[in-house]
Target: Actin-interacting protein 1-2 isoform B
Amino acid sequence: MSHELLETYACMPTTERGRGILISGDAKSNSIVYTNGRSVVMMNLQNPLNVSVYGDHAYPATVARFSPNGEWVASADASGSVRIWGTRNDFVLKKEFRVLSARIDDLQWSPDGLRIVACGEGKGKSFVRAFMWDSGTNVGEFDGHSRRVLSCAYKPTRPFRVVTCGEDFLLNFYEGPPFRFKLSHRDHSNFVNCVRYSPDGSKFISVSSDKKGIIFDGNSAEKIGELSSEGGHTGSIYAVSWSPDGKLVLTVSADKSAKVWDITEDNNGKVKKTLTCPGTGGVEDMLVGCLWLNDYLVTVSLGGTISIFLASDLDKAPTAFSGHMKNVSSLTILRSNPRVLLSSSYDGLIVKWIQGIGYSEKLQRKENSQIKCLAAVEEEIVTSGFDNKIRRVSLHGDQCGDAEAIDIGSQPKDLSVALLSPELALVSIDSGVVMLRGAKIVSTINLGFIVTASAVSPDGNEAIIGGQDGKLHIYSISGDTLVEEAVLEKHRGAISVIRYSPDLSMFASGDVNREAIVWDRASREVSTTMSFDSQSIMFNDFSLMCLLCFWMCL
Model:
């Protein structure tokens, strides 16, 4: 049985307060690329549900760039390594180089696609390196910085130049290749967060935490202008991006605003438009990343909201969407509307998704406790955390009511609610299960084996318990006790997830060896077995999507 991936709900870029993030794009495909954890995410701006994820970095990925022809991506990580891989054909790896001794913050391709310059942290004076993309051979020496280098830019026209900037407040200019230090500017009085060349290479701009943007000649690095303070940013400027025609720039700031600037003939910048991004005005609405790609102006907030404006209609409200920034710990489908999914991450965020649309909203909880497992019924969500408590929370639209907490005395491993009798909840713990009716513990049952997963049937008459030994135990529920009916032995690893099919004729189980088995409920015989070879797919506490999507496709 073959299955076609229909849509992907992407994670948001990893952000850090007080620092910008540098996203990039491919003008040919209208796609952007960014990083989260060890993953590199490619998203099509025309269809944000068209998402590809590269997950082969061994360390947290920090920055990624499309090659000039859009066929390759160079992505870097916290170890100082750069991986070059194809955007098609299963992301075939072309090369991998250890470029710096520590985290890489920015990298750029040369316009001919033959060289890459990367910068970041390092030992001694090794904060910047340029190399041939196919051999890793050095193409110059980059002296002149004494602290972490946050950004670099490669002049897109001949004669080639490289500009770097960083935490030492310096902006350094190099000629080549092979590149050699030419001169340095100290016009900024704080971290210089981003530097970018205009598309024609005639000038470049640097932006800083001193709230200034300064424009330089692209060939000589002579200072020729700056962004006006009139109507300017009142907080650190974290990122800058040029319009395709080189006449405008987009900036984002800790003051929670994005601004479009006219670069006049005298090479100074005047505010053309201040863009209003959605949000409540809190710290999470600080803007930390931006990109101007064709007609799209993209901004990223500290809280992980991506806003897309149209250059052709800047007065139009942006398309805004968000998602998880931390590992998803649980996923559930609303029985009353199977097109609606709720997902939770361990940081306590619950996101509502709609099939065919994607991101809908973040549920507003009064108590932002961590979440390990999540279940939902008509107007109630039930969560388990890392504090040994089960919480029943009423749900009204996007607002959550007061939480009713039940301390079960042990760490919950899994959580399941009887959808047709939602008072009944089954919580698995190491030694067995805890049965709840409403907010009351009615029984704690020691099963005699290490429990790793559980599911209760919608009518509340049956429970399936999975163990560390790979066995599935089927119980009938009699009052507040369990009566064992059968033991199924097909899995070769610890059971990590169990789910009933929507029509209740089947159930599916997954294990830590990336194998899923679909069982006929009446005969208790195997119906289908699916194995997943990818190391990135594991049926554990935070990857229920495969089983849920399988049921949705039936």
